[in-house]
Amino acid sequence: MKIMNLNSMRETYSTQMKYSILFEMGLGIAAYTYYDFHHTLEKPTGYWEDIKNELSSTVQKELNYTHKYNTWFALLQLLHSNHFDSLQTFIEFLYQLPESKVRRYCLPYIGSRHEETRRKASHKEEEAIASLMNSCKHHKFFPAYIEYISMVDIDVLKKHLKIISEGWYKTVIEPNYTEFTAMLERDVQQKRALYSTYTSEEFVKHVTGIDYQPEPSIHQVLLIPQYVYRPWNVETTLPGVKVFYYPISDENVHEIEDPYSPPSALLHGYKALGDETRLKIIKLLTEKDYSLQELTKKLTIPKSTVHHHLALLRAAWIVKVHKSRYYIQIENLNSLQEKLQRFLERK
């Protein structure tokens, strides 16, 4: 059958960039409480131990609560609800918000067709809460998180978010404020200078390394640089907006580039390759895609161990996962030799 296409062009999205030290704070809290991923992050595990030792016992207790209920997600959601030029303005805004608005901001956006259900859940309607939980039942933590946000005492949540925000800001952000803000600003300025030379989709791929195709109800991509979660991209979705907290480029970490400091992608790539089990996984994935269960059976080692290795391969952008199946990114694997050559030739 022949088809006549009368569409003038394919729909796409617009892009926007912004940065804030408060997003760095929120992502730092998320990374700290995501214990299973510490081995994949650029910062060594000792970095997180040092922070723990510097935090007060009160803040440590509240961060354990964050780990249990994933309240870092609530913090990030609230940071997107308005523009805040300081932590104090954010705290003041949080404390004047009515209960239903706090719940509405904190509940995850899972698609336009669920927005009315999300609104009803923010008013503690049990049927809506159950429906919202069911609509994302396969997500790692959303169902339990939705139940928590829908039922928690809002004064308890506000006090909790205030303690972890002020505690993290004082311990981690303030001593490094000038350095953090300078590197975030450098990265945004560098990327904005290149914006006009790309289409929106090309620009998103250049900044994040992700080939993000337009999808229904998403009209804008928001790009936010972050340092603490390198080398990971962290993704979330807001109404009409896809958000990528992307790792800032190596050259923007320091004002003066050290020619002897290897690029992050090179470092993580060869670290991922330096293990017998991970090389076996790579070889298996060059043959076909596998689920975690299938890889566990094939390798005859514990599932938690396989997951540990896959996390390192994903951090190195050698492996990706889609609908619970892992596959190889052969272009990124093949480019490691080229990255090594460029590093060796760096002046």
Tell me what you see in this structure.
The chain has 347 residues and is an alpha/beta fold. The chain has three domains: 161 residues, no CATH class; 75 residues, no CATH class; 82 residues, Arc Repressor Mutant, subunit A (Orthogonal Bundle), CATH 1.10.10.10. Helices cover 56% and strands 10% of the residues. Strands 1-2-4-3 form a four-stranded mixed beta sheet, with helices on both faces. Strands 5-7-6 form a three-stranded antiparallel beta sheet. Strand 3 and strand 4 form a beta hairpin. Helix 1 crosses helix 3. The longest helix has 20 residues. The mean pLDDT is 91.
Specify the number of helices: 18
- Provide the spatial order of strands within the biggest beta sheet: 1-2-4-3
Rg computed from alpha carbons, rounded to a whole number of angstroms: 21 Å
H/E element sequence:
EHHHHHHHHHHHHEEEHHEHHEEHH
How much helical structure, as a percent, in the residues?
Answer: 55-70%
Mean pLDDT: 91
Question: How many strands, what sense, and barrel or not for the largest sheet?
Answer: 4 strands, mixed
Number of strands: 7
Number of domains: 3
Structural class, by secondary structure, is alpha/beta
Which range does the strand content fall in?
Answer: 5-15%
Shape: globular
Uncertain segments are none
Distance between the termini: 59 Å
Keywords: DNA-binding, Plasmid, Transcription, Transcription regulation
GO molecular function: DNA binding; DNA-binding transcription factor activity
Organism: Priestia megaterium (strain ATCC 14581 / DSM 32 / CCUG 1817 / JCM 2506 / NBRC 15308 / NCIMB 9376 / NCTC 10342 / NRRL B-14308 / VKM B-512 / Ford 19) (Bacillus megaterium)
Protein name: Bacterial regulatory, arsR family protein
